[in-house]
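=== RUN LOG ===
request id: a7f3
mode: sequence -> structure
chains: 1
length: 289
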Amino acid sequence: MEIVSWNPPASLDLAVSMARFARWGGDPVNRFDGVHYWRAFRHDSQLMAYRARQESRTIVIETDGEPSIALADLEYRLGGTLPFAPLEDLCSSDLVISRERDARPGYRPPLEPDLLASLVTSITAQQVNLTWATTTRTRLVERYGAAHSFLGETLWCFPQPEVLAAADTSDLRAMQFTTRKSEFIVEVGRQVASGGLDDLERLSDEDVVDSLVAIRGVGRWTAEWTLARHLGRPNAVAAGDLGVRKAISHLYLGSEHLLPDEEVRKVVAPWGDAANWATHLFLEALSTN
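=== RESULT ===
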């Protein structure tokens, strides 16, 4: 067991940032118990895990793997690609966003380093409530993922692409995924396993969207969440998401009218590289109000 301490360069509240993983029944891969954040994942084909907790301004990480790898994973999880300066600049001129930032000091938008996990998470959340999405995704992870014992707990690593690529859709149907979602999950497993999506990080936002929507089962909604929560593009906003539309319409604009996605894009466009972070602030407000 290795222990490493991390002092983030700016204010960080681990509990506020990770709360969403416990909000809809407990995320099967990202466990948060109110104090500790637990995660198991693969690095160079080897399973490893860590547990993180906050002591004042310091984050203490215990791991059974390489400490620098665990720290890098946690930093990415905590919005590591999102710059502070654009949000601070935006808050200096926008009192509504500044209010939400001040209500959640130390909040960081959680990102997902695993492309397949990001895609499947979006697919499982299509047209259902988030509690049900978490329930079915837990079944998927416990059927096809890898269990890992760590500090007396059983943690789950998200399934490997080749495993989901070979999954039987009737098995997925038995987990209460729809026929179409079952097929979509297998298809994205195949696409990731083939290496066809390995270059996403080097593509422009629109080229990422074009590459992803070419996959059966992936629409612009899923593609934009991939930009925002997997690639962590600072300006990315899933404007077609119902929660985003509610957050921008009701909490930012104070309107009873629900904006269509194109109007949401116009609203957030001036936010530039603060858009991803600012949108997540409003989503947190929507989820906790």
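=== NOTES ===
The longest strand covers residues 46-55.
The chain has two domains: 1-80, 83-102+112-146+158-289.
=== END ===
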